[in-house]
């Protein structure tokens, strides 16, 4: 038997929704949990998924219409079924504009078993839950419009101002039980509508205070400027592949970052003016290449130093960087392992960042910021070919590194990266 | 402390109270010369003689009525039913007289009487002799109903019952007479107050309220659950009327969940009464619906395999605890 489908309440606070787009067309087969339409609510554009199986016989509202929950939006049934009665029902309803809702979401759920190809009730609940999976805001309210929760949870919610509409229930039928609110991450920070809570105050850790002090000092005292260069990363990437094939038997591996460290170290040898520090009335030109590697750790950032990077092979660099980063994350680095670097490298490519500017780690003179690999068309000899590109941005201390010097370094670095054999020179 | 059997603890209670107070006497079928159908009154005839340990004909309505009359004129009778199943022929005496005289005489006449005997299923005594009688008697205002699970509670509560000026229904466990347990040393008198629950096992995760024979089923189930990381707190109400829920409420506020386990049928009775009170007195602390594990809602079958299914089992207790704990 065909049935009228009402606009579901897709967030606990949804008072109206705009039917942004119909994904299914009239005549389309519909499975339980199929995406029927997209609906913009007060929170976000949400997926409107089907509780029923059958054929979408009639779309009752055009795209762009803003409606209250439960307003009939479609009719689902068997192919070729007579729906004239239902259409009359819809027409009568809209004519009387009655406040009562003849087709409500809970009915739609409980009636699912009776509809079309008889979907078991349990299945329809599961479907509802999987719909909630993709739309976390709707949580347990999606099942019945009522948030199911234990009396204990209701008391806790009152006491801690938890908005139960945003909590997913793990009990039977999505009931919110104690463990759900205990593990609820925002337990004390949720908002009851209209109420504004003060910020959560936390004492800054000593690591955060050190980061704050050093980076503020850096930005306030060092005249930063930035040089960005776009590089063909394919040769270095291929070199890495070849090296790893060779290292595989020994169970070792090098990363692209290890090769970039090595390339930067070689470039620092070629343009040593960049490997320098401003020390008030003196400039120190370093005779070693010690590269600080920025490592993200829990609640902060550390910069272990790889000593003599210019004199080490890539495989050794790989081993040492991995070991240093591991100890940084375990907070087991000695202070002297984090000081007296001469140049820094920071890589956010793994997060998909294309390019960024980094803050110089004083008293070093420069820091190289590494972006992600971009697969994109490039023009080569007048023809468009697939390219693998990467962008590097160096922040320089203008007190010691002038623009031309920095640019000279970036050019040398690019030559090495694009022709890795240059590292052997 | 020393270890005594449940039956020995009951015997000591009667012995001590009969020595203490010459108005206390025992009357019932086979309580004297046969030394008690379950040997609870063993030796009492020898010490107190036929005036105070009285064998009766098979006539429960008669000797229950004689006992009530004796209580009304100042004696303190202990009326033994060979089993509580036989109390049904004395039902009118217990309900219409023992429970009513104090109110109908406007407080002028008290009925200090104890009706006692074995209660509940034993082994293959079939539907007519397996009644768990608490629901019948707990529904009557004017009666106190006690159902002890351990030897210590049996002794301490029977002594209090004999000293009480109210008619008391004292339900002993037919299968518990041989159970051993700690009882205070000879010469150390312990009167356990009527209407006071006891913490039988401390725990943090789920409260279980139970009494009588299932008390032991629950303690075994609690050990198995503990091995899986669920620590149950077990509470024995001991007295079913008046009912003390304070300890249960305190426990449920801590564990947020509760299973009530009893042998009597599920329809009404103290099990349902406890659930009713807890859902009100601890409503804001409940994380799951209260559950009960009960004797199944059928006349007791004779077949042993079926009888085992009807009585609460460790598995049913474990399942219920896991359900209310939302555990797999």
Account of the protein in words:
The complex is a heterodimer of chains A (425) and B (328). With 425 residues, chain A is an alpha+beta fold. Chain A folds into three domains: 132 residues, RNA polymerase II/Efflux pump adaptor protein, barrel-sandwich hybrid domain (OB fold (Dihydrolipoamide Acetyltransferase, E2P)); 50 residues, Irregular (Dihydrolipoamide Transferase); 218 residues, 2-Layer Sandwich (Chloramphenicol Acetyltransferase), CATH 3.30.559. Chain A is built from eleven helices and 19 strands. In chain A, strands 9, 12, 15, 16, 17, 18 and 19 form a seven-stranded mixed beta sheet that branches. In chain A, strands 1-8-6-3 form a four-stranded antiparallel beta sheet, with no helix packed on it. Chain A has a four-stranded antiparallel beta sheet with strand order 5-4-2-7. In chain A, strand 13 and strand 14 form a beta hairpin. In chain A, helix 9 crosses helix 10. About 11% of the residues of chain A have low confidence. With 328 residues, chain B is an alpha/beta fold. Chain B folds into two domains: 182 residues, Rossmann fold (3-Layer(aba) Sandwich); 127 residues, Rossmann fold (3-Layer(aba) Sandwich), CATH 3.40.50. Helix content of chain B is 36%, strand content 18%. Chain B has twelve helices and 14 strands. In chain B, the strands form three sheets. Chain B has a seven-stranded mixed beta sheet, sandwiched between helices. Chain B has a five-stranded mixed beta sheet with strand order 9-11-10-13-14, sandwiched between helices. In chain B, helix 1 packs parallel to helix 7, helix 3 runs parallel beside helix 4 and helix 8 crosses helix 12. Chain B is globular and about 60 Å long. In chain B, 52% of the residues are buried. The model of chain B has no long low-confidence stretch (mean pLDDT 97).
